[in-house]
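Shipment paperwork, digital attachment
Item: protein structure file
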Amino acid sequence: MKTNTFNEMTEEIKADEGVVHEVYLDHLGLPTVGVGHLIREHDPEHGLAVGTQVDSERVHELFEADLYTCVAETKLLYPQFEELPAEAQKILCNMMFNMGRPRLSRFHKMKKAVDSSDWIEAANQMLDSKWAKQVPNRANRLIERMKNIQT
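Attachment content:
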């Protein structure tokens, strides 16, 4: 992923997730911090009360690690990732960041469409998902962008 594409993706994810400098509960009631970072048992924030402040340096550290994991996971799911249009790379990483590989890997028909550069079908498969109903604003924006990819 080129640096400018990575930087654009980073800003998009920050806008979609928000940046919160305290422990909060996500839409599923799970403890989260920073830029949508789900707090895990090994995180020092594990067990902290909702509302506990987290400094900017830690939020940045978590986000950076999550971004690199996100790109690596997307490349595992899409081995031809580097050959995809930059717009498709950003969309797929955004979805990966939001859902994680276990859930995104269930988008079999979307993956088949992406693999064959059928952006309209990929968008249709994105729309036909539980994800699109859970995060409609984000999903609809990404779906429109997917439809408009030119190859």
